[in-house]
Structures are given as C-alpha cells and as structure tokens.
Specification:
One of its GO terms (molecular function) is ubiquitin ligase activator activity. The protein is mainly β and 81 residues long. The protein contains one helix and six strands. A hairpin with a 6-residue loop joins strand 1 and strand 2.
Length: 81
Amino acid sequence: ELVSTHGYSQNQILVWKYPSLVQVAKLTGHSYRVLYLAMSPDGESIVTGAGDETLRFWNVFSKTRSQKEAKSALNLFSSIR
C-alpha cells in the first residue's frame, strides 16, 4: 500500500492499494493540513503531524496473528536442517 497526506480542504490521510491505486481508506481527524508522516518500525501503524500542533497515531496495517509471530534469531532449531 501507499499512504498520502493532504491538506487545506480535507486535511486527510489516504491509503491506496498498490499497484492498482484504488483507495482503501480515508483517515480524518486533523483540523489543519497534514505536514508530517512516519511509519512505526513494525510497519503496523503510522503517525501524522499537522498544522494544528497535534500528533495522531493510526493503526493502519495491522497484521494477522500468524504473521506477527516472527521466528526468533535466538531459536537455534529453526535454522538447523
């Protein structure tokens, strides 16, 4: 997916499906234009900052339970063949 931020008339965050570029979600909540966007290290959420001097955290890309269970590098039996 792609995430774009917009301002002035809508002050929204849009999530697009890639490569078809079909709009998946419209996130609203800021009262001024969205200026900043960053993704969390786990890739599940984003944070946006706007001209209204607020930060908003959005849980956009939540993973299913099986995808969250990553293999630990400390588990020696997972890499032995």
